[in-house]
């Protein structure tokens, strides 16, 4: 085959793919946006692009990134979970009480905390899927229940003097890499393969794309939706555990606003609120964008209220362009 023929074949394949520059920007714009934001802060501040600060950004973003995994799964099914921040707080205070007041061994307390998070997610999923109560209302109610429970379980008081062995969860490192970064890498890798390679992941995408068609094709829609909320509760519990370890005390008021940050990370990462479209890796980048913005703006001494405005604008712009792309 001649060079001309080869060229024609390549061009034909390219054109057949119907991909333009705008299409590629639309598909990979979130990654480009992250690099641009990172580059801007690196230029305007000499203390931003350092090993210690980059590591700090990832660690600061890790808790929201972990919680956002479950939120991604839920949103992919065309749902929403407003209770994740309150679940994290409830798990935090329950974990502290188990370790300090009840004297439960750290490994068992951690296991029970994760189970509790999954059970709360199961309750959300059951009410939504089988009780047919809208996800917004169900998780809004659970947000109030979990937050109230976190305050009531110890009379609104924090729990301190946590076991030293528990601190390893946040202070350890592997080959010099902070353990929080390892958590993010492991959990995102596992969920990436679950969503892209396992049939449950395919079912989650299918339900978000068309729930009725999925039901008619034999997918157990209610069970799959319920499993999505179990994942959300489980990863919210993980976030609560990580937060407790990082603060070195358990507080019933912790996790406030985590639900909004998790949703923002998912949306900025390109997952459609209408369900069926999105990427777990996009969510990770979305969480890193939020962390990078907060870190960079803090280094530049931008007041907190302006930071909120800027992040709000970024969220709206991300949703706007995502909507334009899908229309």
Automatic annotation (TrEMBL):
Coiled coil: none annotated. It is a multi-pass membrane protein. CDD domains: TM_PBP1_transp_AraH_like. The chain crosses the membrane at residues 28-50, 57-76, 82-100, 107-127, 133-153, 174-195, 228-250, 262-293, 305-321. Pfam families: BPD_transp_2. Its main location: membrane. InterPro entries: ABC_transp_permease. Keywords: Cell membrane, Membrane, Transmembrane, Transmembrane helix. It is found in: Cell membrane. One of its GO terms (cellular component) is plasma membrane. GO terms for molecular function: transmembrane transporter activity. This is Ribose ABC transport system, permease protein RbsC (TC 3.A.1.2.1).
């Amino acid at each position: 085959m001649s060079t001309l023929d080869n060229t024609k074949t390549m061009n034909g394949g390219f054109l057949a793919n119907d991909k333009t520059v705008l299409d590629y920007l639309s598909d990979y714009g979130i990654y480009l946006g992250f690099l641009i934001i990172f580059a801007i802060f690196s230029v305007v501040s000499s203390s931003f692009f350092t090993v210690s600060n980059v590591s700090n950004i990832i660690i600061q973003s890790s808790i929201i990134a972990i919680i956002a995994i479950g939120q991604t799964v839920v949103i992919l099914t065309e749902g929403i979970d407003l209770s994740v921040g309150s679940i994290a707080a409830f798990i935090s205070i329950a974990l502290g009480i188990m370790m300090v007041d009840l004297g439960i061994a750290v490994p068992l307390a951690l296991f029970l905390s994760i189970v509790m998070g999954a059970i709360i997610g199961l309750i959300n999923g059951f009410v939504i899927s089988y009780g047919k109560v809208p996800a917004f209302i169900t998780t809004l109610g659970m947000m109030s229940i979990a937050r109230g429970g976190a305050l009531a379980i110890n009379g609104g008081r924090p729990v301190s003097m946590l076991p030293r062995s528990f601190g390893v969860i946040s202070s350890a490192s592997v080959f010099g890499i902070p353990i929080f970064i390892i958590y993010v890498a492991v959990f995102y890798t596992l969920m990436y393969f679950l969503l892209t390679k396992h049939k449950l992941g395919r079912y989650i995408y299918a339900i978000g794309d068309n729930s009725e068609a999925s039901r008619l094709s034999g997918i157990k829609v209610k069970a799959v939706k319920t499993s999505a909320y179990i994942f959300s509760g489980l990863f919210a519990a993980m976030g609560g555990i990580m937060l407790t370890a990082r603060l070195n005390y358990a507080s019933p008021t912790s996790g406030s606003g985590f639900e909004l940050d998790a949703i923002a990370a998912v949306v900025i990462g390109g997952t459609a609120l209408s369900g069926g479209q999105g990427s777990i890796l996009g969510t990770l980048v979305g969480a890193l964008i939020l962390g990078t913005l907060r870190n960079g703006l803090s280094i530049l001494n931008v007041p907190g209220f302006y930071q909120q405005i800027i992040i709000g604008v970024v969220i709206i712009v991300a949703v706007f362009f995502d909507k334009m792309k899908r229309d």
